[in-house]
Design brief:
single chain; 267 residues; mainly alpha; 13 helices; 0% strand; globular
């Protein structure tokens, strides 16, 4: 149990700006093996990011004047908060993946482009469209389903979308530049126990969501996330014959958007 908590805090430090310092850092410790084990707690990081983002969204929507533009303002600001909280970690992966797969036909050139820190036209367009879609869908969910549903959707989407990359880690090989890849020590592999831990984080989160807002529309939302996973898995397997850290970030972003979209269509 205590080892699981240590792995969770390592994942929290790796995927967010939340500092793990002082006595807590001394207690948590660090090793490459612990970093690999922390991948199982990626959905647990979704609990923190999704919970805080939902709280910001709900707080803003409660405090803002009751005007048609209020959900849009709240959606923009909570999205900005989530990007700051994660250091745009996954958005960066989406942009790099779009540049690599959009700007090259062969696998080697795509991987080379994805390592370039500069953003290209494909990445810029993908990033802008993803953020616009996220804001628009959040505003729509608030208008169509109310404050509680939209807040629950934010929480559920952040947890669910962080479960999906674990299945890619489990079923595809890592093909990044292994000597310098920041994802290699984290995403080298995941076993059945790690996958079970991730699914448990997700199941507890969705149990909470359904208890707050019962309805079959959550099944549609999860189906959307699974379809996003299937599309990304096929794309990465066909174009790269495996995954990179950027591909995992792109998967999280695609699955989050697919969750919102499917939920909106089901209301």
């Amino acid at each position: 149990m205590f080892q699981s908590f240590r792995h969770f805090f390592i994942a929290l430090q790796f995927f967010t700006r939340i500092p793990v310092t002082g006595r807590l850092a001394d207690w948590v410790g660090f090793s490459p093996a612990m970093l690999r084990e922390s991948a199982a707690h990626f959905p647990g990081v979704g609990w923190v990011v999704g919970g805080l983002t939902a709280a910001v969204f709900a707080g803003l929507l409660t405090l803002l004047p009751a005007q048609p533009a209020a959900p849009w303002v709240a959606a923009v600001l909570c999205t900005a908060f989530s990007v700051w909280l994660t250091g745009a970690f996954h958005e960066d992966g989406l942009a790099d993946t779009a540049d690599g797969l959009g700007g090259a036909v062969n696998r080697e050139r795509a991987l080379e482009i994805m390592k370039d820190s500069r953003i290209g036209s494909y990445g810029a367009v993908a990033l802008v469209l993803a953020l616009l879609c996220k804001v628009a869908l959040m505003a729509l969910l608030a208008q169509a389903g109310g404050l509680l549903l939209a807040s629950a959707a934010l929480f559920g989407a952040h947890v669910s979308s962080r479960l999906m990359p674990l299945f890619i880690i489990r079923t595809l090989p890592h093909v990044g530049d292994t000597p310098t890849s920041k994802s290699k020590p984290l995403a080298e592999s995941i076993g059945n126990a790690g996958l079970f831990t991730g699914v448990l984080w997700w199941a507890l989160a969705m149990g909470l969501v359904v208890s707050l807002q019962p309805g079959l529309h959550w099944l549609a939302a999860m189906l959307g996330a699974l379809l996003g996973l299937a599309w990304m898995w096929r794309l990465l397997r066909r174009r790269l014959q495996g995954f990179t850290g950027d591909g995992l970030g792109a998967t999280q972003q695609v699955c989050e958007l697919a969750f919102y979209l499917a939920l909106a269509l089901a209301l």
